[in-house]
Amino acid sequence: MPPSNAENEIIIREVVKDVWIFSRPFNLFNRLPVGGRSTAIKLKNGDVWLIASTPLTSSTRSKLAELGVVRYIIAPNAFHNLFLKSYKDAYPEAKVIGPEELNEKKRAEGWQLDEVFNTSVPDPKLGFEDEIEHCFFVGYKNKDVAYHHKASKTVVAADLLFNLPATEQYSQTQNKPSFPIINSWSANSWVMRMFVWLKEGDFAEMQWSARKVGTWDFDRWIPCHGDVIETNAKQVFKEAYRRYF
C-alpha cells in the first residue's frame, strides 16, 4: 500500500534529457525497504511513455502534464501492477502494455491490458520501437521486460536488476533503507546473481534475452528498486547475468 504521506515523500528529477524518475519509499511485504520508482520518457513527437510503479500523486500528474500527453503506460513485469488502474483511469486514451499474466489480475478489476507480451508474441509491435526498443525475458519467472531508450543510452526495467540500498527513494523520510541480514544488494553483488538464478525459469530463454540486452548501446540503468546506475551499467548487467554470457 502507498504510504499515507506519499505526496511529500515522492522525489521527481530529470536523470538525463527527456527522462524523468518518480521515486518513493516502498517496503516489500511491509518489511523490506526496496523502494519504488516510475519512469517517464518524453518521445520526439511530444508523447509520454511511462512505466507506472508509484502512486499517481498530484505532483506526478503535474509533471506528466508538463512533459506532454501520456500515450503509453507500461507494466514492466507481472508484479508491478498496483497503480495501473489509477493511471488508466486518468489517461484513458493511453495504451496499457505488459505481460499477459497481468490480465488475470486485471479481469477482477473489470478491464484488460491493450497490448501484451507472451510466449506466442514475445516481440509485439508497440509503436515506439524507433526510440525505445524492448526485450521480453520469457525465461524469467517475473516476466520482466527491459526497455532501452536509445537517445539517452538508458535501460529501464523493474526486477531484472536491484541496486540497494534505495538511498534516493528514502531520502525524504526519517527511515533508513537498511536491509535485514544482507548488508548490500547492489546490482553487481552475489545476492543479485543469486536472485537471478532463483528467478530463472528457462536457461536457454534467459541466455537469449540477456545476450540481446548485452548488444544494446547503454550506459545507464534505471531499476524500480534501488538507486539509478548512472554509468557503466552495461558492465554491471553482464556481471549480474554472467551465467548467460
Automatic annotation (TrEMBL):
Pfam families: DUF4336. InterPro entries: DUF4336, RibonucZ/Hydroxyglut_hydro. It comes from the Eukaryota. PANTHER family: METALLO-BETA-LACTAMASE DOMAIN-CONTAINING PROTEIN, YALI0C07656P. This is DUF4336 domain-containing protein. It comes from Somion occarium.
